[in-house]
Amino acid sequence: MKIFGVIIEANPFHNGHQYLINKIKADYSPELTIAVCSGYFSMRGEISVLPKLEKTEILLKSGFDLIIDLPLYSSLNSSLKFGENSIYLLNQAKITDLVFGIEEGSKEDLEKILEIEKNSLFKETLISNLNTEYSYKKAYSKTILNLSHDQRLYQLSLLPNITLALDYIRIIHTKYPHIQIHTIQRIGNNDNSIELTSIPSGSALREAIKNHIPIDQYINYNSDKLINLTTSNQILTSLLHSLIITNNDHFKNIHLVSEGIENYILNNIDVNIDYEQNINKLANKKYTKSRIKRTIISMLLNLEGNITEDLPLRVLGFSKKGENHFKNLRNVNLCNNIKTIDSKYFDYELKASKLYNIITKSNSYKNEFKFPIKEN
Q1: DSSP β-ladder status, 3-8 and 334-335
Q2: What is the separation of C-alpha 80 from the centre of its chain, rounded to a whole number of angstroms?
Q3: What is the pLDDT of residue 232?
Q4: Residue 180 dihedral angles phi and psi, to the nearest 5°
Q5: Are residues 132 and 208 in the same domain?
Q6: At 189, is the pLDDT very low, low, confident or very high (cuts 50, 70, 90)?
């Protein structure tokens, strides 16, 4: 039985995502398609423009048979940890294949890049490049060029989705070699572009939402489901400013806090500018915008620095086929009702739903008790 897994954030779900799902079904004809999806906050530390309940309903209508919850503690993380937790859950759900979109190239190209990492000079060259480049990603790509002299692989390694793709392959090679890997070329702009083309990126759509530009032609559901990012930014601004009244030491054991990042953030918050302006001001060579945003959300939620328990598999929604598959899973730490889950992961998920409730003025906390959703 072919069971295909997809890792998705759907922030927001758009026509490019629907193309990916349709392409999977057309090219591979899987018996079942499963998505693991982040909820209230993304790997970039951004608030989800679709509430989790609405996002789940949209994913079911788009063609997925089973939607698995990627809890905040797992989604609010580096690309490697994000990938590790996502693939762990998909493996628990018994996928046979993982498929993901990339802007250019092929799986074979990605394997060539990973092969370069085995070069005995890789670490030394990377360290040298870190001293001259603005970010780790640019230093990594420059190292690939230095050791391969391949301009095409260099340009490929710079693309935003390639970082995640490389992590997915590393994880599968190391821990889940039985899972088959497939890539599908994305259509439209890459994920860092904010230009509204025929199939724009999630970044472009979020920028349009912020600027009150209609995006109805780029999505296949009612745009009324989207949150008000202007209001959310105002509330996040107040919450960020409020952090400065807490002693810096309070945050030393918080998730993602290391190397004094809490002191850097707290000592440089400017109460005269808004949340997004503060993020732009705080980002530097050492800390990316995503790292800053992830850490701020962790500080706002007082997320514990380390959770040692196994990650439970929680189902948010299913089709009839997905329900049958879900019921037949064995030897899995399986949960479908958050009321019965004894887990710090989901203690924090409820806490995140309350923060999201405050920021968006939605019913996210109450809606946490409505899962799983069954497709009509």
Answers
A1: unpaired
A2: 11
A3: 95
A4: -80, 145
A5: no
A6: low
